[in-house]
Amino acid sequence: MHIPRKRFGQHFLEDQSIIQRIIAAIAPTTHDHLVEIGPGQGALTFPILRAAKALDVIELDRDLIPILEKKAQDIGRLHIYSGDVLDVNFNELKKDERLLRVFGNLPYNISTPLIFHLLSFNNIISDMTFMLQKEVAYRLAAEPDSHDYGRLSIMAQYHCAASILFLVPKEAFNPPPQVESAIIKLTPHAKLPYVAKDYAHFAALVKLAFGQRRKTLRNSLRNVVPVAVWEALALNTNLRPENLSVRNFVEISNACQSMP
Ligand code: SAM
Questions:
Q1: Is ligand 1 within 6 A of the CB of residue 57?
Q2: Does 85 contact ligand 1 (Cβ within 6 A)?
Q3: Atom 2 of ligand 1 has which residue's CA nearest to it?
């Protein structure tokens, strides 16, 4: 028997109706290249493997690998990567023309760095369906002017469309986590709606602005955005970062690049 490990964020899904709703949301087919992050004891893995016949999984806890291997034997082809997902180069998982369909009940302790890691492989992923801490899911999908809107919303929505599918109560897990959860779908844009000329500059600008969230743009970005940029874009510098859309941030960054 496997004892759940806190340090690996192990909260195993047990509620069959929730498991079925997640499988239905993923809608696996035999044509898909599916990749699961953190299969655990296989609550999602085996129903998906039954439908898709092949599946890649990435699991950090070595003790779970033999359990997964044994259970998969009569079901389908389970390709197990043993290690930390943050070290995985997803380009190496892609074997043919198919884009990756990534899913998982994510370890909440690494969810934000993991989302940033995955966003860097946006061009080879067709969709991502994740269980996350409810607050993180809300932040990913948040719209400007809302309490949850911030750097994570902007960076995720620069690359992806984000929508919350449904909430999951603590009781669906063993052991139950301390927080509520939500299923979120992130669908990378086939073509970016707004393109930053210098992505690193855009990302740094967003980080700087939200590092001083309560300050007006005029104050927080004083040293990096010339006055001429505000004038050219006719943006009110008394606004705060949460009042700006992804498009606004891209336009500010691009205008900075164009200034002499
Ligand atoms: N999918 C299973 C379920 O729904 O019952 C388990 C989900 S549990 C919340 C998170 C899983 O991610 C655990 O199996 C844990 O060992 C694994 N994990 C934690 N950190 C990881 C990492 N850095 N890389 C890969 N897997 C990780």
A1: no
A2: yes
A3: 40
Closest by alpha carbon to 9, among 35, 36, 40? 40
Residue 181 CA, chain-centre distance (Å), reads: 14
Determine the Cα–Cα distance for residues 59 and 8; give it in Å rounded to an integer: 10
Name which residue sits closest to atom 14 of ligand 1, judged by CA: 40
- Measured in whole angstroms, the distance separating CA 220 from the mean position of its chain's CA atoms is 27
C-beta neighbour count of 139 within 10 angstroms: 22
Residues in the chain, pLDDT under 50: none
Which three-class secondary structure string do you get for 56-67?
EEEECCHHHHHH
| CATH number for the domain whose boundaries are 199-258 | 1.10.8.100
Q: What is the pLDDT of residue 6?
A: 86
What digits encode the pLDDT tens for the residues 136-189? 999 999 999 999 999 999 999 999 999 999 999 999 999 999 999 999 999 999
Q: Is the CB of 38 under 6 A from ligand 1?
A: yes
Look at residue 1 in the predicted model and tell me its pLDDT. Answer: 79
Q: How far apart are CA 189 and CA 159, in angstroms?
A: 6
Distance 220 CA to ligand 1 centre (A): 38
* Residue 18 alpha carbon to ligand 1 centre in Å: 17
Q: Which sequence spans correspond to the domains of the chain?
A: 6-188, 199-258
Q: What is the pTM of this model?
A: 0.95
The finding on whether 231 has its CB within 6 A of some atom of ligand 1 is no
pLDDT of residue 4: 87
Fold of 6-188: Rossmann fold (3.40.50)
> Which atom, in ligand 1's list, is nearest to the CA of 12?
5
45-68 pLDDT, tens digit each: 999 999 999 999 999 999 999 999
**Atom from ligand 1 closest to the CA of residue 13:** 5
Q: Residue 7: its pLDDT value, please? A: 84
